[in-house]
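Service request form, structural biology core

Requester: graduate student, group of Dr. S.
Request type: structure prediction, single chain
Budget code: on file
Notes: please return the result as structure tokens.

Sequence provided:
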Amino acid sequence: MSLYVYLAGALGDAVDDLAKLRADAPSDGELFDRFLGWPKPRQAEKGRDN
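Core staff response, request fulfilled:
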């Protein structure tokens, strides 16, 4: 879970920085996929409720 929180913060920083640096910044969906779309959540441990 902490990886997702860290990457969400990095996503926010990247959106701000790209808006200042480039007029043709990637779309919100592309940035989301780049930062938060690749890590896969772990399967719940056997017998543990989510």
